[in-house]
Design brief:
- This protein is mainly α.
- It has two domains: 211 residues, Up-down Bundle (Growth Hormone, Chain: A), CATH 1.20.1250; 120 residues, no CATH class.
- The protein is globular.
Length: 334
Amino acid sequence: MAAPDSPGGLDLRSLLLLAFAQALGSSGVSMLVLVGGVVGSRLAPSPAWSTLPVAATVVGLAACSAPAALLMRQIGRRPGFLLGTLTATLASGLGALAMARGSFPLLCAATTLIGANGAFVSQYRFAAAESADAAQAGKAVSLVLAGGVLAGFLGPELGRWGEHWFGAAPFAGSFLLAACLYVAAGLLLFLLREPRRAGIAAVARQQSEKARPLGAILRQPQTLTALLAGIVSYAVMTFTMTAAPVSMHVLDHHPLSQAGFVIQSHIVAMYAPSFFTGFLLARLGLVPFMLLGVLLLVGSTGVSLLGSHLFVYWRRWCSWAWAGISCSWAERPC
């Protein structure tokens, strides 16, 4: 990944590669949000375990976030990204095999590994910031996050397109389509170049020398506020994300196309506000902005009580996503 040598302090080549890789690399997770609970309800030994495949995706992402960052400090961005993409490609094949064999444990293993790649995908934005000078870093991150909007549309379509590829193994084709996208993402990431500066490991050492101790950070009231906001917003959103497709398609018998529309709206609502949340944050201030997210969470809970119509699901999911974006900005002052 080259240093920022393009006009305006942006390495547009690297940013475009990362943006399209973001779109392709996030589509697999978007697909799982739609089909994970549905196939889980078919393969799980008990209905109580139906949402475990989607929950395993979230666990895989969370468990690998720190290891992924530490690994790339040692081996660099491009090798780390390629390793994550390779893992997701193999995991998608494992998911197709799980559907062919009707194996719930294999399905959970596959979704956990796909979630693990999500930890590497979340680092794309930091790679984008490294490809621009300090004044343009925000624009660089926004451009890469725009790929998430495309993933919001593309991922659920994978679930629908591949549902009936193999009559005896519903949704096996969806996992194979996801594998194809991961291969395409890997080809794009292969074209990235490492920064021309001293190297990732050297930069990491310089940052470590300047960094405050973790204990000092955790003692800040701002840090505790950020942790609480992040825990509540993401916990509530994840709870809804894992259960809603099952509720829509299996319990309320909405067509998969309608469930896909709701999920597309949810994921687009997660990424699209990134283009203007910085402006709102500057106008409203951090605390009012976080309170806006809390109010949206409360409002979404009220919407959930209105029934099981498509419009109710759509309103609920868009509000959850926006609230998660709002509360997650609490992490910035830490």
